[in-house]
Amino acid sequence: MSAGNNFRQFFQFTARSDPKWYPGHMRKSLKQLQSLLSITDCILEIHDARIPLSGRNVEFKRTLSGVRPHILVLNKSDLSSHKKEDKVNIVKHLKSQDPNLSDVVFTSFRDSSIKLILPKALETIHNFPRFQRGGGPEKNILVIGIPNVGKSSIINHLRKVRLNFSGDATRVGALPGVTRALQTKIKVNQDPLTYLWDSPGIVFPSLNDSHVALKLAVCKCIRDDLIGEEIVADYLLFHLNKQAVFKYVKVLGLSAPTDDIQSLLLQVALRFNWNKNVKNLATNQIEMIPNKHQASLHFLKLFRMGKLGRVNLDALDLHNQENAPKRTIVSI
């Protein structure tokens, strides 16, 4: 299925595209993270592979990175469209922007890549001098990241794999912000004795870049209702069409790709017979209309489950970075 010529080239933002969401527990947790640096051997930052260049908290870089070895884990790579060349370019760009990054790792729960995280962290710790480090001889790894990128799931998985423990040591949820306080240390390895510290997801105090805010919302790193579910669904549709990922047409039972989110949501609501009652102010009567809000939630849920295809929401940004004119430094 080929892309048409009538798709939008730019996304029209609304007043709600710049959400303000910085719960008090996030501010408190950032200070707690800083206080743990004295006993930390390695920082493990978890991020969503569908937005490898967007949404990382700049406060991490300012207050935490560079003090200890710092590994960036781009999780949920099974939901992203990265090819091998893309991954090379992503790593190259990330390290150029943050020279303190020790390594960048792509992971997914669908393969064995998750198991590589702990050996990689221990190897990095071994190769990094433990100066200005308090605490005991055990290895302490601080797990940080924005909300809903899989931090707690990764910790629980490593704990089960390395120690053969059943049950979860830390809570996991589908909504951003499930972990609301710094957890006690969680044992994940016996030899060498290694602990992970789980932490709440922390976002920017203010998301001034509308593209970043919407990408975070599409990946459910911030709550949909902060922007509006139909707006987030429209932004997702914009990216699917832009990257010619038209799997949504078959999944939703449409006749062809569309660039009109209202038309898409109406067709989905009618297909599933999703309706809601509203009051007609002119007649003072209750009327039944298609529930496009429920349809937008369904559309977003399908994408987050990987049912609409693999997408890199930063693909255009990465392309622009790679093809930007190179600066030439002239010595005089």
UniProtKB/TrEMBL annotation:
One of its GO terms (biological process) is mitochondrial translation. It is found in: Mitochondrion inner membrane. The keyword Coiled coil does not apply. GO terms for cellular component: mitochondrial inner membrane. It comes from the Eukaryota. Its main location: mitochondrion. This is Mitochondrial GTPase 1. It comes from Caligus rogercresseyi.
